Amino acid sequence: MLYPDAVTLDPVVDAEQLLSRIDAGRGCSIKDSFATLDLAAHGFRRLIEAEWVVVDRASAAEHWSTLESPAQLEEWSSAWSGGISSDFFRPTLLLTPGIAVLARYDGGRLTAGAVANRSRTVIGVSNVFDIEDDFAAAWRGAAGAAAARWESMPVVGWASGTELEAARQAGSRTAGPLVVWTNARPV
Fold it and tell me: In the chain, which end has fewer C-beta atoms inside a 10 angstrom radius, N or C?
């Protein structure tokens, strides 16, 4: 539901060929990881224009931990979604190797979180949130918690707007643009 129908893994992609391999109808979304596609002629519009962000060396984070129980995940999911009950993140996620759902607790209260996933070369961080909208602190803490969980590797993610500025304030650098396209053609 919240993931694209396609993600480019190479800066040179033929738009026609890509669209022929997916259901490119209304509601389709494509994450153009290098911002090199032009899908406007195919009825798509830019939904998000963002930047890749990288933290080369993250510092340890206090009060952050990895979730272990479905009850913790339910609390985390509610905080992530702004209090709306959400079953988007399923308990099996907690058992998936290479993925960690991270949370910051202050006085026993969940105040921030993120999802981290480890590849061979980097740790990806997504779904970063802070219930008091201190995204810089959340990004810094999530990067530190992810780096502490696994060997010290670059931590990457993407952000736009005020979240991008906060990620920069947290010590990240930008590494290039990306665009999320959505098919906006009328039914």
Answer: N
